[in-house]
Design goal:
2 strands; 366 residues; globular; 16 helices; mainly alpha; two-stranded parallel ribbon
Length: 366
């Protein structure tokens, strides 16, 4: 008789998600993009055997890409999708818990990866399927993006790699970071600007740099990234709950701070997440009061990023049937989630004792 799956440390079900945004939009060419992306993966032999291939496809990277970019150029969407499959393979290596994947290895690989993104001729990565696939991605990215878009993409890649290196260093130290440190640096690994650059490219967005980097738009982007990161920490928790020391995520940081169990920390994580979600909604309203069509489209894209990420993770076997509980991903696995019409708490001011978040509230005063 097969043993029942190990229960989640978060409890029998995930909490309701406060997300009063348009949901369930998917790019009309999502299926075609997925088929072409998988063909690309196989052409480079990215996965060494059928089991690794199954787990790679279980990321549902095409679904993620097509939900956060539900409209726009299919060729740009395809390249973004392939980037996500490739990046998830790197993420799985970083999170493998293998003794050889320490901070030094993560930093060394990250620096070489970033230099390759900036200069694909630098020849600083070892030969192999991952490098060949990366070079193909980089060459096609350089050909498609404008110089400014390429700089935005490179900065988004740097965010991802710095966040991953910081998390690896904290895990290696054996100590859980403080909450302010985590909210300042942990969400970097989510790669928000990595993703939003491709959203802009696919939609043909040409926002002036001064507007894109204005305090209000930067705060809106950071708030969206925090919400997506917090949601991912809930969806992905079971996938990494076997690691020792514990995974650096919002739930574990709060559990350590409050000296409570992960299940008891979930409401605290949701309350902080909902506080930032409320800020996102108020900032969106403030920006839209004065926005032109281009800025309106950018704000809608951030909304697709938040809502689409929830819908994708609900269905992704990577999270719904995690590898530490299953020999192979289960295609039918999914989370039964609920949406909430209201946040878990009504506070509108910045969370006390978290200066790393306080600046996001300042554009509301201007």
């Amino acid at each position: 008789m097969t043993a029942p799956p190990r229960p989640s440390l978060l409890g029998p079900s995930l909490p309701p998600f406060y997300c009063p945004l348009e949901r369930d939009r998917v790019h009309p060419e999502a299926k075609q993009v997925e088929a072409r992306a998988v063909e690309w993966l196989d052409s480079f032999g990215l996965y060494p055997d059928p089991v690794e291939r199954a787990w790679g496809l279980a990321t549902h990277s095409a679904d993620f890409s097509s939900r956060i970019i539900p409209e726009g150029d299919p060729e740009a969407l395809l390249l973004f999708t392939e980037w996500n499959y490739w990046a998830n393979a790197v993420d799985d290596w970083q999170d493998s818990g293998s003794p050889e994947v320490g901070t030094g290895a993560v930093v060394e690989h990250g620096v070489r990866l970033l230099r390759t993104v900036e200069d694909p001729g630098a020849a600083v990565l070892p030969e192999g399927p991952m490098t060949r696939a990366l070079l193909d991605l980089v060459h096609r990215t350089h050909a498609l993006l404008t110089p400014y878009e390429l700089r935005r993409f490179t900065e988004g890649t740097r965010d991802w790699l710095l966040g991953a290196a910081w998390r690896a260093a904290r895990a290696e130290s054996g100590g859980m970071p403080g909450l302010n440190d985590f909210v300042a640096m942990g969400p970097l690994a989510n790669g928000t600007r990595f993703s939003m650059t491709w959203s802009a490219v696919a939609r043909g967005e040409r926002l002036p740099a001064d507007l894109l980097c204005s305090p209000a738009v930067m705060a809106l982007t950071d708030a969206a990234g925090f919400v997506v990161s917090a949601d991912n920490d809930l969806f992905s928790y079971d996938k990494d709950d076997h690691l020792e020391p514990r995974e650096i995520n919002l739930v574990n940081v709060l559990a350590h701070r409050e000296r409570c169990s992960p299940e008891e920390a979930v409401p605290l994580a949701v309350a902080l997440r909902d506080r930032v979600m409320g800020l996102f909604l108020r900032l969106r309203e403030r920006i839209e009061e004065r926005a032109d069509d281009r800025l309106d489209a950018h704000v809608r894209a951030l909304c697709h990023y938040v809502a689409g990420s929830i819908a994708w993770q609900t269905r992704a076997p990577r999270y719904a049937s995690p590898r530490n509980r299953n020999a192979l991903p289960r295609a039918e696995a999914r989370f039964e989630i609920r949406y909430s019409d209201a946040p878990t708490q009504d506070g509108t001011e910045p969370p006390a004792g978290l200066p790393a978040l306080a600046s996001w509230w300042r554009p509301l005063d201007g």
